[in-house]
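Re: weekly structure request thread

Next one in the queue (242 aa):
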Amino acid sequence: MIAICLLAGKIMLQSGGETYRVEDTMKRMAAALGLPHSHSYVVPTGIFFSVDATEPAKLIRISERTTDLDKVSEVNAVSRRIGQGQLTVQEAHELLLQIERKPSGYAYAVQLAAAALSSACFTIMFGRGWGDFLPALICGGTGYAAVILFHRWVRVKFFAELTASFVIGMLAFLLVYIGAGFERDKIIIGSVMPLVPGLLITNAVRDLMAGHLVSGLSKGAEAFLTAFAIGTGIAVVFSLLM
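Done, posted below.
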């Protein structure tokens, strides 16, 4: 039963779930499984869980985090079914293991296509005409591909995002220089939008509002580092070419 609660919390936290939601789900699952006096403490890099004063607390270390709200929803569905008595302990454990083994997110081709199209649409939204639609499409897709590629080589997310934003800036300058685009600032702004940590910022604010100060501040700091990496990469391009 403890393993089920820890596994559910691990999947949710790795998939972008808010800290307070992870704690609440683990507490509800433990109560439904016959452990009414459970305690959980969740931070972005770990989960502490205890059922009572006689049992030692359990710890799970979280090293990789991504965004997969489908998995968060599936774990919530399992939690509700446990609360309604529709699942046994073994069935719940098997379902959670299946959710954990599922590939995260969409295929890379789908992600690149979505990033490219959203970049082009953001460029239109920011006040530029259709003349910069195609350059933003190219820059956004290339930048997102660079994030994926560099993150495989260097496991530090900051450097992958900085390098990707640098690639976006250089490509935008090149496309405008050869006459394929018109306003490089609009192209750059639209192209970096898929890199902006929107979900992370939202979760940081929600955790702070729920009273989870450690998690809220740490997620806010992570979002700030991502924003700083994007800004630094673009600033380097401007300093070199302006």
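DSSP finds ten helices and three strands in the chain. The two ends are 61 Å apart (CA to CA).
Next request, please.
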